[in-house]
Specification:
heterodimer; A: mainly beta; about 50% strand; globular; B: mainly beta; 7-stranded mixed beta sheet
């Protein structure tokens, strides 16, 4: 069965410092991986995706993610955190076994950026 | 361009009642998916529709049903509501079914069952 795991419920970082939100995956075959962000009382906003190609993927709002096949990880990163980055972050993998386009989400990681 | 829109924003229902949630996809998007997000958890897949046909169903009881209209908008229906159905219901649209295409989510409908 395909799955993703976000091992940290919360990540705290000071404004201006680099941030990393961790994600590991378990899939059979090549993974299609996504990061979404959710602000309070809002839906999910797409940040970036990895389909194939370069292991470093650049996305919206200065975020990037590094695909590591050997470690089955897809960590979200940003060189310099902003207070406005504080939100709930979800890693997701496309369920390629069902041919439905279904996304399987992790439990989410709350990012708290303090001034 | 307008994003995915959902209505209503919030609603409160009583156990045993029925509810209909509505979604309009991004213009040109033919695929609509529904997800349930219970507080503190990641979204769970309920249905996917493409070109008005059901293409996938998650592990939800038959009380949950959906349909897609010729203009690609969609409805999610839930019968005999239970307290456990309280959640944020998210609609997502996608241009095509190909795996490489990302899904764009609406703001959600917050359903509270009392």
């Amino acid at each position: 069965a395909q799955s993703v795991a976000q091992p940290e419920d919360q990540v705290n970082v000071a404004e201006g410092n680099p941030l990393t939100v961790k994600c590991t995956y378990s899939v059979s075959g090549n993974p299609y991986l996504f990061w979404y962000v959710q602000y309070p009382n809002r839906g999910l906003q797409f940040l970036l995706k990895y389909i194939t190609g370069d292991n470093l993927v650049k996305g919206s709002y200065g975020f990037e993610a590094e695909f590591n096949k050997s470690q089955t990880s897809f960590h979200l990163k940003k060189p310099s955190a902003l207070v406005s980055d504080s939100a709930l972050y979800f890693c997701a993998v496309r369920d390629i076994s069902s041919n439905t386009g279904k996304l399987i989400f992790g439990q989410g990681t709350t990012l708290q950026v303090k001034p | 361009d307008a994003g995915v829109t959902q209505s209503p924003t919030h609603l409160i229902k009583t156990r045993g009642q029925h509810v209909t949630l509505r979604c309009s996809p991004i213009s040109g998007h033919k695929s609509v998916s529904w997800y349930q997000q219970v507080l503190g958890q990641g979204p769970q897949f309920i249905f996917q529709y493409y070109e008005k046909e059901e293409r996938g169903r998650g592990n939800f009881p038959d009380r949950f049903s959906a349909r897609q209209f010729p203009n690609y908008s969609s409805e999610l229906n839930v019968n005999a509501l239970l307290l456990g159905d309280s959640a944020l219901y998210l609609c997502a649209s996608r241009h095509r079914l190909a795996d490489a295409y990302e899904q764009y989510f609406g703001p959600g409908t917050r359903l509270t069952v009392t």
